[in-house]
Design goal:
- This protein has 168 residues and is α/β, with parallel strands linked by helices.
- It contains 6 helices and 8 strands.
């Protein structure tokens, strides 16, 4: 992505694009015509399975007010008890907390380029897929990657079992 292309993108997408470029990631963010604030909307826009969407969910750790980023598969729900067992007690993060810590609005939180580095966990359920897509800092922005790219792009965040068991 050249400088002129980059400056025409929303600020959050520019930040993600720079991080991806700096880390040598082969896929730049793309802008969708419609907003993809939910995993289902993103999957529909991309023509892929909802499980291939890497959702970035932010929690607020109670002990130190740290942001906890859980990257999970779009067809799974995060099990807070499992997250708490790994990182300590957490609570819900409101929109102001998410924006202040990540620099992104809910519905566009990317797994990279946060204003303050979060505690990060990658859900093992993402590894069911060869290719996944993640938000790129804006509700219309996404980028393509492979599950194991998340470990490299997030600085070695651990892969963990943090999803609720699927309903039978």
């Amino acid at each position: 992505m050249c400088g002129a292309e980059l400056t025409s993108l929303p600020e959050g997408v520019q930040r993600v694009a720079r991080v991806l470029q700096d880390l040598g990631h082969p896929h730049a963010p793309v802008m969708l015509d419609d907003a993809a604030r939910t995993a289902q909307q993103a999957a529909d826009a991309l023509g892929i399975a909802v499980g291939q969407i890497a959702k970035s969910i932010i929690f607020r750790r109670k002990a130190d007010d740290a942001a906890v980023l859980v990257i999970t598969s779009g067809d799974r729900r995060v099990d807070e008890k499992k997250v708490n067992a790994i990182v300590g007690r957490t609570g819900r993060a409101d929109a102001d907390f998410v924006k202040a810590r990540t620099g992104y609005t809910i519905g566009g939180v990317a797994p990279v380029g946060h204003l303050q580095p979060p505690v990060t966990l990658i859900d093992r359920e993402l590894f069911r897929f060869e290719e996944i897509w993640a938000a790129a800092g804006h509700p219309h922005g996404v980028f393509r990657l492979r599950p194991h790219d998340l470990e490299r792009l997030t600085g070695g965040a651990p892969v963990a079992d943090v999803a609720q068991e699927p309903a039978a």
